[in-house]
Amino acid sequence: MKMNIFLIASVFAALSCSPTEPVTQQPQEPADPEPQPSERVLLAPGSLACSMTDAGLLLTWEDNSNREEGYIVVRQVGDGEPENIFIDANSTSYTDTGVDKGHYVYTVMSYYGMDRSDPASCEYENYSAPSVSVGNPETSWYMVSVPVILDDDGGLECSVGICWSEDGEPTLEDNVYEFRGEVSESAGCYGNVTGMAEGETYTVRAWAKNAEGTVYSSSVSVQPGSHPEPFYPEWQEIDTYDLPSSVRLYSTSTDITGRHVNAWYAVADMSAGDVELRTMKASSLKTPSQFVEEDMAGENVCVIVNGGYFDSTPQSFSYVLDRGVQQAANIKTLTRTFSYYVTRGAFGVSRDGKPSIRWIYNSGDTPWTYGRPLPVVDGENTLTPTAFYPEQSSDWDVYSAIGGAPVILRDGKICFDYLTTASGKYKTNHELLQNDIFGPSVRPPRTAIGYTAEGNIVLMVVDGRNAGGSQGVTLDELARLMAGVGCTDALNLDGGGSTAMCVTPSAVLLNSPSDGSQRKVMSFVSFVSK
């Protein structure tokens, strides 16, 4: 045991007595701390600006956000729906390659999930003066019609029309027609001009105007067509009936444009003061003879004809005013290609027998009356009549009046034609007559009323559909017949099987109705002895 202890001690002593060297300790690097996430910050982009480049409209901004998911660019053109465009995080630009004419608003914001920064916005406007061109004009006896194309509206609302002059290049300082209604870019309209002097040559240009300026098309030359001459067939006076001297009756059996025609007319000298024009509506459908017998008993009827349009319900579609009392209104709207407001013609006389023709729209108890029709065209833009359009409505001094359509004579001229639009609709069928009434080869029986320069009133009927061998007349041929007996202004009434003329209180039928007998109708026009 002792030896063991010694050895241990000796070894310990040896270890303790051996020489030592200093020990240098190496410093240790401190351990990196765990990374802490930076704060998420969504701030509005800074210094947002836009500029046009070759590539498109460049939007630039400063990235003021931290840890955003990305950016949203909201693009809105005019009043259109906004469009959201999502951009990568840390972006500072966006190029819009689809910029055209118009007003652009851009709103830029950073986002994360459903969170959004405050927005930054900028605007860009790209407008110019418009561009317009003109097509080949068409002419008729009534008007010159010039096709106009708005090639470019410049991004702004435009006024469009034509101007014309007899001397040099026309401008808006010369004669001007402005198209009413919306004209879309690259769409066409027609500049329809009436009243140009027959035989004169005019220079015409289309024009377009917006807030950026006024431009003109190239010019074209036009010459109005020749107005048709009146027809002067040989009329035979019918003197076999007991009529006052102020009412005279005539008939003819003749050829017109190569077709046989039978026609009758009565003319009343209103200045004599012994004859009154009555315009009346029946309580139910009746023939003219039946109406005289049942509704005009005791009155000295000289001549009676059918009146305005109606249906079988029965309902009158035409204005009727009798001795100051409105009995029926003109129809307000008609459905053709679209639903249209419509003004239709009416013939009236004042209390002292002075005749006149107006276009009317029944807006209420008192109709608006105009010296021109609302220029609606089937298949084209709809228009709305007002107290100021198609012109300023004026008081119409009438005691009795009857509606019809269309007006066929105005100031001695036929006031329509058969020029058509690209879709084949008649440009001057403003009163929206059906194709069995209005057209260059449509010849049903006709009834018309008109007046002369002296104020005499004319009632005329023309047989058609081969009734009695009569082949009928077109509306322009009817106008030429009315002009031939002295009318300066005239209105077409309901025709076809409705056409009938009866004379004297016993209501003797003069013509041959195409139905084989008198048709029951809704309204009537008559000369009555006072």
TrEMBL record:
The keyword Hydrolase applies. The keyword Repeat does not apply. InterPro entries: FN3_sf, Ig-like_fold, NAGPA. Residues 300-525 form the Phosphodiester glycosidase domain. It comes from the Bacteria. Keywords: Glycosidase, Hydrolase. One of its GO terms (molecular function) is hydrolase activity, acting on glycosyl bonds. This is Phosphodiester glycosidase family protein. It comes from Candidatus Cryptobacteroides faecigallinarum.
